[in-house]
Write a structure and sequence with these properties.
493 residues; alpha+beta; Jelly Rolls; 28 strands; flat; disordered N terminus; Membrane-anchored protein; DUF6212
């Protein structure tokens, strides 16, 4: 019966040795009733410690030398990070029987109850997992039944038709330098997608950027990054993977664009409600009490919508994330410092801030790289950066422009020198790549991060010659737009 009790804990826990002792105390413990629970460490410092069928929860010592050996052995074990740190219990060698009884009660009773409770929790977790898989399978079958019987789960519930006013100037250029925001005048419950109207397609390259979020919390839902070639003239349907569920909230649509050509986004008829009119961070006469031309579609909450014409799936889902745009203010832009790496010393200022235009001028030279840095311009959580660049002179020679994001603790001039010498940057630095820009034709430079930036970073604006001449090559960079995301709620309007 005694042997059965001694071995019963082993099969329950999968381990037999739950106490650790020095080999010096082996003789004392071998005669106790916890001998089957103890593993031993060799006293030789040069020996390799190996624990077999054991996971110690405490270390016991009955002598000073045994305690010293245990501490040395535990220090060797801690370097392997295979067992947690253990407390060394110094016990009286005179009362071995009493100490052994207490240790056995602790290990067999306390740890045994914990093992049985853990086993019970594991069994319940397995049952919950099976039920969850069965629920998802039933849910999938329900969706298949809807589609098989042609029960259309998507229906149009609201529309603002496009309207062309003869006085319209067009909001295409506004989209390249700012964003347009539109509140949807329907509850979020069941919304499965929306359509935006384009009355003309741009000829150049670029990208339409659309985000959908909840107004009350700022929590993002989805984002669409659509190249111009993926758009059609007329209605473009932006679909959600599942119709919105949960509590009824207000949906906020945000639209912007990047590219050299203006995007012909349509507006609707004039309305009386200022709340549901389109708005932007920059004033524009076309947005005077006018909404975007859009349609809203709803379906069953949580159900995947059916396919429709010109359907565009989200580029990324923003569930659980809160998105906010921010700009580089005058206090940041005015602090730009020259960190150029070139052997030419010009008789004019190559890096400067234009206060009245909120822009940075970076004049390239015939050789080397002209660069200016703005310390700690990029905030933690930033996921994208964009700006506009142009050669602001009709006879200006072409140039190449790029952005470099470097850790705030790094040497900006050394980072630029590294790029000039090797053509590459360090792993801790982010580089946008070179973009060529010509006279009086603005381009958009965009950086999309693979993951949110974790620490503040410096923004370095770089330029270099694109040809043999740099005459009148006044490169102007402006309209810095940044987006950061967080998993914590932000203060939103």
């Amino acid at each position: 019966m005694q042997e059965v009790r001694q071995s019963a804990l082993g099969p329950r826990l999968g381990l037999k040795k739950l106490l650790l002792a020095s080999d010096r105390d082996r003789a004392i413990l071998q005669g106790s009733n916890i001998a089957h629970l103890v593993d031993y460490l060799e006293s030789d410092d040069s020996s390799f410690d190996m624990l077999k069928d054991s996971f110690p929860i405490a270390a016991v010592a009955f002598s000073e030398k045994g305690e010293a050996d245990l501490k040395k052995g535990l220090a060797r074990l801690s370097a392997l990070r295979t067992v947690p740190e253990l407390a060394v219990l110094r016990l009286d060698p005179v009362n071995v029987a009493e100490s052994s009884a207490l240790l056995r009660a602790l290990v067999e009773d306390g740890v045994g109850r914990l093992a049985r409770y853990t086993s019970s929790i594991t069994s319940e977790l397995a049952m919950l997992r099976r039920e969850r898989e069965e629920l998802f399978e039933n849910y999938r079958l329900l969706e298949d039944a809807f589609h098989a019987r042609n029960w259309e789960p998507v229906a149009e519930v609201f529309a603002h038709d496009p309207f062309a006013d003869p006085k319209d100037e067009g909001v295409g250029q506004l989209l390249s330098s700012a964003f347009i925001e539109q509140l949807l005048p329907v509850s979020s419950l069941g919304v499965a997608g929306f359509s935006l109207h384009l009355h003309a397609l741009p000829k150049g390259s670029g990208e339409l950027i659309v985000t959908l979020s909840y107004l009350e919390s700022g929590e993002g839902i989805a984002e669409w990054n659509v190249p111009y070639v993926g758009l059609v003239n007329g209605w473009n349907f932006f679909s959600l993977p599942r119709a919105c569920g949960g509590a009824a909230r207000t949906l906020r649509l945000r639209v912007s664009a990047s590219g050299s050509d203006a995007l012909a986004l349509s507006l609707g008829h004039h309305i009386a409600s200022e709340r549901y009119s389109a708005r932007s961070e920059h004033p524009h006469p076309d947005l005077d009490l006018r909404p975007l031309a859009f349609r809203v579609f709803t379906g069953l909450p949580g159900v995947k919508p059916a396919s429709t014409a010109n359907m565009i799936a989200p580029t990324s889902l923003l569930e659980g994330q809160f998105t906010v745009d921010y700009r580089l203010g005058l206090d940041k832009l005015s602090q730009i410092a020259d960190v150029s790496v070139t052997q030419i010393v010009p008789d004019f200022q190559t890096i400067r801030f234009l206060d009245h235009e909120h822009a940075i001028v970076c004049h390239p030279l015939a050789s080397g790289i002209s660069a200016g840095t703005i310390n700690r311009a990029i905030e933690p959580g930033t996921v994208s950066l964009s700006a506009s660049a142009i050669i602001d002179h009709p006879k200006g020679a072409p140039a190449a422009v790029s952005f470099l994001l470097s850790p705030a603790s790094s040497n900006a001039r050394a980072e630029v020198a590294e790029l000039a010498r090797k053509g590459t940057v360090k792993p801790s630095t982010l580089f946008s790549g070179w973009r060529e820009v010509g006279a009086q034709q603005s381009i958009s430079i965009t950086m999309q991060m693979d993951e949110a930036i974790r620490v503040p970073m410096d923004l370095i604006i770089l330029s270099r010659a694109a040809g043999d001449s740099v005459d009148f090559c006044w490169l102007k960079v402006s309209s810095f737009r940044l987006v950061k995301q967080s998993t914590e709620a932000l203060n939103v309007r």
